[in-house]
Write a sequence for this structure.
């Protein structure tokens, strides 16, 4: 059966398949990378400091994890559309628009999971770093180092949310592929919607398998990083 | 201190790696983009045409067949966004597309009346067909009236799948229900909010009737268990099931940064003898899917102006029906 599935590549063959894999990775990795740079300082700040309304901020971040992707897509499209407030940049239906919407989707996940990782670092560790004459930055680095497994988990969770998502990128990306079979804004997930629409379930299944393998590979990389870290600590 | 320097260096290098990574991927994955960033001499606008179009022109493979020639001739990269007609018109209204290729004349007219569309041309036509399961529970096989068939489907409460997505096909379906004097409601009437391909697949799986454009139906015929129950006007069916496609440019006076030149080049290509013969020559499952109708020796001014523009507003619709009948008689091969 698998041999039969292998034969049923979409029109355009491997060029097409490889280009949608590359676009999927480019968009999701960039979105997750930017989101991590944005989320970590905020997670550190919220985790370190006590301020009035802190639990409300935490609740908002946690609620954001369940934000429907199609709503995010709609809002990003209205923002970037030529008739929207950021219309002058002409970014609707581009990979950048998809990065923006996946950034919005991944950020609550990364922020929330890394926040709980930061909060789980014992107060005594922070106190010790501070007592040894560390600046705020030093204390932050110590805490990130202590919480690094949780932070890797956060980044992986954010990546999982981004790469498997279809609702928002279909709306803001437009599912465009050039006539030579190179993808512009078509990803693995939106390509699957095209195949399903045309009743070619087997081809969709092949693409779905590739997506699963990708996610599996990234998670394997994550758990390898984590196990390597643990090995270092015990050594 | 040393450690901090190291962390900093690691951060910078991973950032650089990320940037480098996305740069190299873009070079391999989207050569078309580079043209867009550096407009040079002899290039039409930014060298890109964003075309919002219906799922029927995309899913049948027609656009994939004709776009490479257009791109080669004009040096323009086409970005096709397949959506329903309603969504395509909205995209164009927001200035996010340069040209649209759609099939709902009333909605196109409204689009032009509102000043968003210019340079409309008729491109091609086919028709809609009512398709249904093999056992034909409503007993409509061979009915020559679409409205009678819809009335029977409603009376027998046979399952009917509706696009429900404001597409051209959906608009046409609602027109037929209205003409039949039936307000479809109840568990037998299912709005699925999907594209034509999806809807045909779902109708096939659930043994339901639906209205489909002949092109998409023919291109998917070998993957679904649905038969034509009411023929469209291409095979002596009622003219209410006509399906004409039109192309138009987004008004550059509304949105200065739309690629109007590329849009008119595209309109010119589709309506040229070359483009028309490519449409004529395109087949799927051995059948011609679309019939070109842009070329005519006789003057045909109605294609340029929206309905209601002329003083003969009242009988414009019936004129269009006659016009469509004329295309069927003159443009289709006798042996179709």
């Amino acid at each position: 059966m698998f041999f039969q599935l292998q034969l049923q590549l979409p029109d355009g063959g491997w060029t097409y398949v490889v280009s949608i894999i590359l676009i999927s990775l480019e968009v999701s990795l960039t979105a997750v990378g930017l989101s991590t740079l944005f989320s970590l300082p905020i997670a550190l700040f919220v985790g370190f400091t006590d301020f009035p309304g802190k639990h409300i901020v935490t609740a908002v971040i946690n609620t954001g994890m369940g934000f429907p992707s199609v709503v995010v897509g709609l809002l990003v499209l209205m923002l970037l559309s030529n008739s929207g407030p950021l219309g002058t940049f002409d970014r609707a239906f581009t990979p950048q628009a998809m990065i923006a919407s996946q950034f919005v989707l991944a950020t609550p996940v990364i922020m929330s999971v890394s926040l709980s990782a930061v909060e789980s670092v014992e107060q005594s560790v922070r106190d010790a770093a501070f007592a040894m004459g560390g600046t705020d930055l030093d204390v932050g680095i110590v805490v990130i180092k202590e919480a690094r497994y949780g932070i890797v988990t956060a980044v992986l969770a954010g990546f999982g949310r981004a790469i498997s998502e279809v609702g928002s990128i279909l709306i803001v990306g437009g599912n465009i592929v050039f006539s030579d079979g190179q993808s512009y804004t078509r990803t693995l997930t939106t390509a699957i919607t095209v195949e399903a629409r045309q009743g070619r379930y087997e081809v969709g299944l092949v693409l779905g398998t590739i997506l699963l393998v990708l996610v599996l590979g990234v998670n394997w990389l994550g758990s390898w990083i984590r196990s390597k870290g643990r090995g270092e600590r015990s050594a | 201190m040393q450690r901090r320097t190291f962390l900093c260096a690691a951060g910078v290098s991973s950032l650089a790696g990320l940037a480098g990574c996305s740069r190299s991927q873009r070079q391999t994955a989207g050569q078309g983009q580079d043209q867009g960033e550096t407009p040079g001499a002899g290039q039409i606008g930014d060298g890109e045409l964003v075309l919002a179009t219906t799922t029927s022109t995309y899913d049948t493979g027609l656009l994939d067949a004709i776009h490479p020639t257009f791109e080669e001739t004009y040096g323009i990269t086409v970005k096709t966004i397949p959506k329903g007609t309603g969504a395509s018109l909205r995209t164009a209204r927001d200035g996010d597309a340069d040209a649209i290729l759609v099939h709902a004349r009333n909605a196109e007219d409204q689009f032009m009346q509102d000043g968003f569309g210019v340079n409309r041309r008729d491109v091609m036509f086919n028709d809609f067909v009512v398709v249904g399961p093999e056992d034909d529970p409503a007993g409509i096989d061979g009915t020559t009236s679409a409205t009678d068939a819809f009335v029977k489907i409603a009376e027998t409460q046979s399952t009917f799948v509706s696009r429900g997505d404001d597409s051209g096909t959906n608009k046409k379906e609602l027109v037929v229900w209205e003409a039949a004097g039936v307000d479809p409601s109840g568990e037998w009437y299912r709005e699925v909010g999907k594209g034509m391909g999806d809807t045909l697949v779902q109708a096939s799986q659930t043994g339901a009737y639906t209205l489909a454009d002949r092109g998409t139906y023919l291109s998917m015929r070998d993957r679904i268990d649905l038969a034509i129950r009411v023929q469209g006007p291409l095979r002596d069916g009622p003219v209410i099931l006509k399906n004409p496609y039109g192309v138009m440019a987004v008004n550059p006076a509304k949105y200065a940064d739309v690629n109007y030149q590329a849009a008119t080049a595209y309109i010119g290509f589709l309506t040229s003898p070359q483009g028309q013969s490519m449409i004529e020559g395109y087949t799927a499952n051995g059948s011609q899917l679309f019939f070109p109708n842009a070329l005519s020796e006789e003057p045909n001014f109605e294609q340029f102006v929206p309905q209601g523009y002329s003083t003969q507003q009242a009988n414009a619709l019936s004129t269009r029906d006659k016009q469509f009948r004329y295309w069927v008689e003159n443009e289709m091969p006798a042996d179709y």
